[in-house]
Amino acid sequence: MSSSNKLDLQDKDTCFVCGRSNPSGLRLPIVADDQGAHFEYVIPEHYQGWHGIAHGGIVATLLDELMAWSTKTRGYSTVTAEMNVRFRKPVPVGRKIYGQGWITAEQGRLVLAASRLTDPAGTVLAEATGKLWKVSERH
């Protein structure tokens, strides 16, 4: 952190969730657009908690990433300040899931966002709401 308390966020493609240069990461194929963020993904089995079920920390991580990526087309970077997760159904490993994230409001430096994971039938598996801080403008 610099003396002005602004984070110096550097994208070196090493993010645990979306980074392509992180061999230990999820390498999530997430896409940002004007509607927010979305992905289609199969969680690898080595991220399970109970047999066949994704670990809750991984589920929360995916939901967090969706909210963060929903701000990508806005011209600033964010970090999560607060997040609430609702686990509705077990999230499977080894099977396709869908993720969606979107902004619900902006209040100065604060961005309110939401995200959800669904199965191919559209059943909501998990969902989250969060508050993200704008920490830097992109140049």
TrEMBL record:
Belongs to the THEM4/THEM5 thioesterase family. Residues 51-117 form the Thioesterase domain. Gene3D superfamilies: Hotdog Thioesterase. It comes from candidate division WOR-3 bacterium. SUPFAM superfamilies: Thioesterase/thiol ester dehydrase-isomerase (SSF54637). Keywords: Apoptosis, Cell membrane, Cell projection, Cytoplasm, Fatty acid metabolism, Hydrolase, Lipid metabolism, Membrane, Transit peptide. It catalyses: decanoyl-CoA + H2O = decanoate + CoA + H(+); tetradecanoyl-CoA + H2O = tetradecanoate + CoA + H(+); octanoyl-CoA + H2O = octanoate + CoA + H(+); hexadecanoyl-CoA + H2O = hexadecanoate + CoA + H(+). It is found in: Cell projection, Ruffle membrane; Cytoplasm; Membrane. GO terms for biological process: fatty acid metabolic process. InterPro entries: HotDog_dom_sf (IPR029069), PAAI_dom (IPR003736), THEM4/THEM5_acyl-CoA_thioest (IPR052365), Thioestr_dom (IPR006683). Its main location: membrane. It is a peripheral membrane protein. This is Acyl-coenzyme A thioesterase THEM4. It holds the Pfam family 4HBT. Its EC number is 3.1.2.2. One of its GO terms (molecular function) is acyl-CoA hydrolase activity. One of its GO terms (cellular component) is cytoplasm.
